[in-house]
Amino acid sequence: MMKNLFLLSLLVIFAAGCKSNTKDSTAAYADRPAIARDIATANGLDDFKDVEQINFTFNVKVQDSLRSQRSWQWKPKTNEVTLTENNATKTYKRNGELTEEEKQADQKFINDTYWLLFPYQLVWSDAQISEEKDATAPISGNKMDKLTASYSGEGGYTPGDSYDIYYDDDMILQEWVYKAADGNREMATTWEGYKNFEGVKIATSHKSPDGSFELFFDNISVK
User: Fold this and answer.
1) How many structural domains comprise the chain?
2) What pTM value is reported for the model?
3) Which residues contact 183 (CB under 8 A, 6 or more apart)?
4) CA distance 173 to 196
5) Are 73 and 93 spatial neighbours (Cβ–Cβ below 8 Å)?
6) Mean pLDDT score across all residues of the chain
7) Other CB atoms within 10 Å distance of the CB of residue 144
8) What is the CATH number of the domain that holds 86?
9) C-beta of residue 51 within 8 angstroms of C-beta of residue 41
10) Nearest Cα to Cα of residue 200 among 126, 119, 82
């Protein structure tokens, strides 16, 4: 089980097959479902339009052992990305054609920023959205509203994946379940440890039901 959890995090299976577009405000997303816009707004999307740079470190811990760590610097307005991993640093721009090396880094970037800013992906991406009221959350067992974000079977790095997200009355994510397109992989984690960075709300910790797996962020700064 622990090996599977570790592989889930490293194989970038959470990077949904989508096209991310950082537009300027929620007004630009009139074509997205109202619930997607409401969740993105509640989590600070309108403040994100002013972000010049965001830094963060993505960490994966299994049984108190740190298994993966990579640090990012992202400038949303220019889409310049810098990755530092294993004492090596590389910078690229997420526009135009990417080299094979840049694609490998970009897969990690998509994965890590999905965990970091998933509420925004509900409007940035082309996910199909469906809703369910008073669903039972998989970890806490509490009644929450549920939204499912499903991606098409074409394009992106891992097409066909879907996410069931469970959110509270304030439109803040509390739990989610990732489901792989092949139907053979599924994982539930919490969304907790929320902190506010210049209006951008980030869940800094995601834990498996038994707490043996944790994906967490530190060294976060927003300018």
Assistant:
1) 1
2) 0.87
3) none
4) 14
5) no
6) 88
7) 20
8) 2.50.20
9) no
10) 119
